C-alpha cells in the first residue's frame, strides 16, 4: 500500500468513528502518519477530559484504523 493509500484509509477510518465521538461531544484530528505505520491523532472536545479516552483510543480508534490499514502498528493521542 502506498503512503497516499494508507493516508486515505486512515482518514476513512476516522470518518467512520467520528460520529460516535461527536455524539458524546468529542472529535478527532489526524496529526501525522510516520513511517507508514505510526499514527498520531488528537482527541478533541469532550474526549480530552473523558476518563475513558484511552479505552476509546484503543478499543475504538485504533481498532477501526487497523481495520482500514492493517499495517498500522501504533495509534497515539498527542496533546
Provide an overview of this structure.
- The structure is a single chain.
- The protein is of the alpha+beta class.
- It contains two helices and three strands, in the order H-E-E-H-E.
- A three-stranded mixed sheet has the order 1-2-3, with helices on one face.
- The longest helix is centred in the N-terminal third of the chain and has 21 residues, at 3-23.
- The N and C termini lie far apart (29 Å).
- InterPro entries: FSCA_dom_sf, NIF_FeS_clus_asmbl_NifU_C.
- It comes from Flavobacterium polysaccharolyticum.
- This is NifU family protein.
- Residues 12-76 form the NIF system FeS cluster assembly NifU C-terminal domain.
Kindly list the characteristics that best describe this protein.
alpha+beta; 2 helices
Return Rg in Å.
12 Å
In N-to-C order, the SSE pattern is: HEEHE
Largest sheet: 3 strands, mixed
Q: What is the average of the pLDDT values?
A: 89
Helix count?
2
Assembly context of the chains: single chain
Tell the overall outline: globular
Give the class from helix and strand content and strand pairing: alpha+beta
Protein name: NifU family protein
Family: Belongs to the NifU family.
Organism: Flavobacterium polysaccharolyticum
Pfam family, one: NifU
Protein topology:
Elements lengths: L2 H21 L2 E9 L3 E8 L7 H16 L5 E4 L2
Parallel strand pairs: 2-3
Antiparallel strand pairs: 1-2
Helix pairs in contact: 1-2
Family: Belongs to the NifU family.
Protein name: NifU family protein
Organism: Flavobacterium polysaccharolyticum
Amino acid at each position: 500500500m502506498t503512503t497516499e493509500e494508507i493516508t486515505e484509509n486512515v482518514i476513512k477510518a476516522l470518518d467512520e468513528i467520528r460520529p460516535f465521538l461527536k455524539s458524546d461531544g468529542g472529535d478527532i484530528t489526524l496529526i501525522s502518519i510516520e513511517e507508514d505505520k505510526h499514527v498520531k491523532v488528537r482527541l478533541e472536545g469532550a474526549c480530552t477530559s473523558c476518563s475513558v479516552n484511552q479505552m476509546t483510543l484503543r478499543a475504538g480508534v485504533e481498532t477501526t484504523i487497523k481495520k482500514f490499514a492493517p499495517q498500522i502498528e501504533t495509534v497515539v493521542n498527542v496533546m
